[in-house]
Amino acid sequence: MAPRQAPRHLRTLAAGVATAGLALATAAGTALAVGHRTTAPTLKAAGAALGSNWYAAAPYLMPLDNDPPDAGAVMDATGLKAFQLAFILAPNGGGCSPTWGGTSPVGTDTAVGGVIAAIRAKGGDVSASVGGYGGTKLGQNCGTPEATAAAYQQVIDKYGLKALDFDLEEPEYENSAAIHNEIGAAKILQQKNPGIYLSVTTAGTTDGTGWFGKQMLNEAKAQSFTPDNFSIMPFDGGFQGAASQTAALTHFNSLLQSTFGWDEATAYAHEGISQMNGRSDTGETFTQADFQTVLDFATSHHMARFTNWSVNRDRQCSPPDNNGKTSGTCSSVPQSAYEFTTYSVKFAGATPPTTTPPTTTPPTTPPPDHSCTAAAYRADTVYLGGDIASYNGHTWKAKWWTQGETPSTGGSGVWQDLGAC
């Protein structure tokens, strides 16, 4: 499969993670994170009773970046009980210890712990997602499945987790040794933590998943590892609307059958979907009607998982179409606040509140002028597709997500030269 340009790029943690996380923990209640002690025993005791249906329905939430909403407010508005917190990575400077986003060590964390405690205080729980797009994954840095599993076990023990998601995609899933470590670690964790809910998420293509996704399935077969589900992400790959997504799910079901020797029903019972609500990285659009169609497909076929990226984006932009751009903090389609999250609640078998959540309009920055007055390019700034910057006497437009790549007509081709100033 040809590499995708920017799958789920908005999941990458930007600079300032620690500040944002501490602010969120404070909002969740200082009593939940006193000094440097949000203890694992408290978290374990509070997260003991949630059914696996909620882990199967948990949408992704970045607790430290992308203007995270108050999780308790989301729960009150939608009836949601579980969140998929993203992302656990290797340290940016190297090593085999778990961090949030490559920058915030799990071992000394209090910010995310405070968020988890606040969710559990309202009767909910969380899963953690490892990997994602961007950053260095533990499977790449840790030399063996055992070392990789030991790093993830630290996360499980720290937060008393009952669920974990392995998000295996670019560039890690192109590294066969790293995927061997990740799948091997998942199998070890499954054995060491009886009853833990494990999902494996990978890229989606029109025929289900691409070459590297198929190799990942073969690795799981070779190691005799079966998670609770294998989920694909049918977006950022030439998709448009629900019909293209359900077609990909049908093809992926056939892949699961041929790889593991399952019949159709067994394959669907181990199959999941992870969607992107609203506008995708590559400009595809998935509306509330699309989510309902996919939900109907998932429930009628008794699929194992239904999630989306992300709760951070489950808000209306201003203007609603966000001037044709993709955002990490709003959906770029007209909606009520947390409207897409209610489909996860339905998949879990619960009834969302009957009252329509109020529409929130997050503050947005007016689009930059397509002239020489565009803000100067900064290497520490994340640019999304359609963003404008000035550099070296020219105005440049980003074609997809980028950070740290100086505008030029070479390189990866992410920058389009709009002309001299």
Q: How would the global form be characterised?
A: globular
Tell me the CATH superfamily of the largest domain.
Glycosidases
Structural class: alpha/beta
Query: Which architecture name of the largest domain does CATH use?
Result: Alpha-Beta Barrel
Q: Total number of β-strand segments? A: 15
Count of helices? 13
Low-pLDDT segments: 1-9, 11-42, 357-372
What are the secondary-structure elements, in order, as H or E? HHHEHEEEHEHHEHEHEHHEEEHEHEEE
Oligomer: single chain
> What's the N-to-C terminus distance?
39 Å
CATH class of the largest domain: Alpha Beta
The CATH topology label of the largest domain is TIM Barrel
Radius of gyration: 20 Å
Q: State the domain count.
A: 2
> What is the typical, i.e. mean, pLDDT?
86
Keywords: Hydrolase, Signal
GO cellular component, one term: extracellular region
GO molecular function: carbohydrate binding; hydrolase activity, hydrolyzing O-glycosyl compounds
Region (Disordered): 349-368
Layout of secondary structure:
Layout: H1 17-28, H2 40-46, H3 52-57, E1 60-61, H4 71-78, E2 82-89, E3 99-100, E4 104-105, H5 111-121, E5 125-131, H6 138-141, H7 145-159, E6 163-167, H8 176-192, E7 197-203, H9 211-222, E8 229-233, H10 242-260, H11 264-268, E9 271-276, E10 278-279, E11 285-286, H12 288-300, E12 305-309, H13 341-347, E13 388-391, E14 394-398, E15 415-420
Helix pairs in contact: 1-5, 7-8, 8-9, 9-10, 10-12
Question: What do you see in this structure?
Answer:
- Helix 9 runs parallel beside helix 10.
- This protein is of the alpha/beta class and 421 residues long.
- The N terminus is likely disordered.
- It contains 13 helices and 15 strands.
